[in-house]
Amino acid sequence: MQHQQVSKTVAVGIPPDQHASSLKVEFWSKMRRQGRKRPYTPNFKVEISHPRRFLLAGEESSLTVIFCPFRGRRGQYRDTMLLTFKDSESGKEVKIRRRLTAVVTTGEDFHLLRPTSDYTPRMIRPRVDPKDIVPGPTGPALSEVKWVHPLQLALVPRKLKAVLSQQRNNDVEMRNILINLGLIPSGPLTEDNHTRLFRALLHVEEESLSLDLQLYDMTGVVLKAHGDFYMLRVAGLSEGRPSVIVGDSIRARASGTKDRWFQGRVFAVLLDEVKVKFHGSFDEAIAANADVQFELNRLPLRRMHQAIDVQLPSTRILFPAEAHIQGTGDPGSLPQPCNRKIAGNEQQLHAVARITNMPPGSPPFVVFGPPGTGKTMTVVEAIRQLTLKAPSVRVLACAPSNSAADILAERLAAEGMSPSELFRLNAPSRSREQLPKGLATYSRLSADNVFTVPPVNVLSTFKVVVSTCLSASVPYGIDMPRGHFSHIFVDEGGQAMEPEALIAIRTLGDAYTNLIVAGDPKQLGPICRSRIAEEIEPEDSGRHLGLGWSYLDRLMERDMYDDGYRGVTWVKLLKNWRSHPSILEYPNEAFYQGELEAHADPAVVNSLLRFESLPNKQFPIIFHGIAGKDEREAESPSYFNRDEASLVKKYVMELFDDKRFRLKDEHIGIIAPYSAQCGKIRQLLRKQFPARNIKVGSVEEFQGQERRVIILSAVRSKPEGEDEDDRHGIGFVKNPRRFNVAITRAQALLIVIGNPDLLYQDEHWRGFMAFVDRNGGWTGLEPDWDTRERDDTGFADAISEAVEQADRQVPGRARTIGMGAQRGGGRSGARQFNPRSAEQGSGWRNAL
């Protein structure tokens, strides 16, 4: 980009009936930087045509505002120009504020990614319970299975429903009302109230989920026929807005009528569409213009209710104490590993030895696995050692997601377990296409080509059964005896709600079953829709309790899992085999007490130090500061940022253009917290690289994965909507766990693109940006603060307060002077000025 200036000339004057006044022009960006050590480079300046900065009555002058983009940096440039007129006789001052805005971007990208239409937020439409419903087909079912322990309905109590339907000032007030009415148990968590508490929290969560679904009721939509099915497009689906899974029910009827509803069943969930099947009498005339309502699939909730209602034979699972420890805690002899990769890893070998030598009925054992330390590898090794050590061992291995469960099964199969030893239990609602091909022989299909489970006498012959946490209720449902499984593993335990993680152990464990929980409480946690159910403990209690905190979180807060019991009840893996030492350094200090050790292959992690855009060739991290603009379109609540998306494309082009690196598609990963931003980035990359397939996705899609290069787009540039993001488990600001996962996926190069002024509000982002700047990795929009100093002065709050104070001092509303400097294909493009009308203050005539 060439350095260019853009200017705008405006007139100012003094009315004839007023006294002469002096004129002073200041810029807020310079005012707020006074006293700070970082050099100030103005992007706006002003030239006054009048030879004196003093205007007589009736005299006019002109101001020329000049925009000077620093080295042509992209993004939104904003400042505030403050004009101060001081009366020569009275000394009274009148201030006029004008906001300045300029945009530097690649014109072609900016135009391509423009919003399809204005954003229209959804409103909850009141529902009337339908009286006349045409039932649809049943969803995928385990028709061949004989259920001995069927699921109960576990309906939300009417009184709780009634209280939750009332309007309250905030969630804290509602939570206190529920506690005072006895609808949520109060006091410390105990064995006596554990079931009652989590039953109540699940009910509260269900009401929140149901209300969420009402927000996405649709009117006048088209369902496209697709064979025996209909395809319904749902904006925001990939972000869980709304949350729809296979087996859910969707109601539809002719739009604007009071005709009967048709109940449809969801058979597939795609990126932004659902595949639905209705009764045969549902026709295309209705589908061409229909009203649609989403119904909550209660099956996951019912499975959790079933589990928490089953009594445990011992307190060692829920409330482990020192009295439950058997023996000396000596892990015994270290095994000869099946996987030679862990042969020299002391912590992994210690964990495997401890698990394989635990006496029956021991307290839960935790494998704390920070990023890149081989947590799942340790779990797989322990399972393999157990099955080789004793023929009678039976293992149930669970994980919160199908993808995590598949990884467990694939690695166990790779270690030599045969289909007669290992069974991958899949939910009937799962599509065959979602199962990795290598696991087909480890699963079972019914005559209808639907996943099923063998009879209990056959299932009991497998040495290892792998399932999701929710599907772990199936063996109990078909009457698998309690205690059949000698060991139950829960991998990625930090991502599961406590009732979800406990399904297997509460329904299938006995007094002798050993439980092993693996995960990282510093990475992704459970997603809970209800703020009331998310956290029930007072903020100052020092402990966390609620559906937003995992069973692993609660264990690690108990005295039994402090440093005094390290190696006995838990092991922390310390050797990181993934990242360059500089990429590992900040998260190591911020989240892991500086204990992690960098052991990755130097040939991999040093491979991109010659990248031309690296500000410091010895430091493979770039923070590219840019003040973009948050945008939304149509009815999708998802945000996108065109400025950041264009910058992502620029970096990808540079990486592929440098043939020294020989990068392939699978070497680059792009993370963004919003599906809309992911979509915009994919759109740019498809146009630029039609034959390439670079993965672009959310943090969840990259959990447990790594890439040679990670490019992270933070998206947000203004604070509105952060609370809503937090509620839906998206976004990076104010979410340290998501932030931690995002910055620990990279092996050799980490590029972070974001607005430093917004990200500064969060302590972890502030620390990370200071770390990058101190190491010479910063480019683009510079930080306002001195990154060499600790922020003990509340500078972020001071900036916000100063802006508000300046606004209060200036009468009227600010007007924006827009200066658009667009660029396309590396050449300068059109310049646009977009002034907005605003009120004038104090009778001063001001033509801008």
From TrEMBL:
<keyword id="KW-0963">Cytoplasm</keyword>
<dbReference type="InterPro" id="IPR047187">
    <property type="entry name" value="SF1_C_Upf1"/>
</dbReference>
<keyword id="KW-0694">RNA-binding</keyword>
<feature type="region of interest" description="Disordered">
    <location>
        <begin position="817"/>
        <end position="848"/>
    </location>
</feature>
<comment type="similarity">
    <text>Belongs to the DNA2/NAM7 helicase family. SDE3 subfamily.</text>
</comment>
<feature type="domain" description="DNA2/NAM7 helicase helicase">
    <location>
        <begin position="456"/>
        <end position="530"/>
    </location>
</feature>
<feature type="domain" description="Helicase MOV-10-like beta-barrel">
    <location>
        <begin position="216"/>
        <end position="286"/>
    </location>
</feature>
<dbReference type="GO" id="GO:0032574">
    <property type="term" value="F:5'-3' RNA helicase activity"/>
</dbReference>
<dbReference type="GO" id="GO:0036464">
    <property type="term" value="C:cytoplasmic ribonucleoprotein granule"/>
</dbReference>
<keyword id="KW-0067">ATP-binding</keyword>
<keyword id="KW-0943">RNA-mediated gene silencing</keyword>
<feature type="domain" description="DNA2/NAM7 helicase helicase">
    <location>
        <begin position="345"/>
        <end position="427"/>
    </location>
</feature>
<dbReference type="GO" id="GO:0016787">
    <property type="term" value="F:hydrolase activity"/>
</dbReference>
<keyword id="KW-0547">Nucleotide-binding</keyword>
<dbReference type="InterPro" id="IPR049080">
    <property type="entry name" value="MOV-10-like_beta-barrel"/>
</dbReference>
<dbReference type="GO" id="GO:0003723">
    <property type="term" value="F:RNA binding"/>
</dbReference>
<protein>
    <recommendedName>
        <fullName>RNA helicase</fullName>
        <ecNumber>3.6.4.13</ecNumber>
    </recommendedName>
</protein>
<dbReference type="Pfam" id="PF13086">
    <property type="entry name" value="AAA_11"/>
</dbReference>
<keyword id="KW-0347">Helicase</keyword>
<dbReference type="InterPro" id="IPR026122">
    <property type="entry name" value="MOV-10/SDE3_DEXXQ/H-box"/>
</dbReference>
<feature type="domain" description="DNA2/NAM7 helicase-like C-terminal">
    <location>
        <begin position="559"/>
        <end position="756"/>
    </location>
</feature>
<dbReference type="InterPro" id="IPR027417">
    <property type="entry name" value="P-loop_NTPase"/>
</dbReference>
<dbReference type="Pfam" id="PF13087">
    <property type="entry name" value="AAA_12"/>
</dbReference>
<dbReference type="Pfam" id="PF21634">
    <property type="entry name" value="MOV-10_beta-barrel"/>
</dbReference>
<dbReference type="InterPro" id="IPR041679">
    <property type="entry name" value="DNA2/NAM7-like_C"/>
</dbReference>
<keyword id="KW-0378">Hydrolase</keyword>
<dbReference type="GO" id="GO:0031047">
    <property type="term" value="P:regulatory ncRNA-mediated gene silencing"/>
</dbReference>
<dbReference type="GO" id="GO:0005524">
    <property type="term" value="F:ATP binding"/>
</dbReference>
<dbReference type="InterPro" id="IPR041677">
    <property type="entry name" value="DNA2/NAM7_AAA_11"/>
</dbReference>
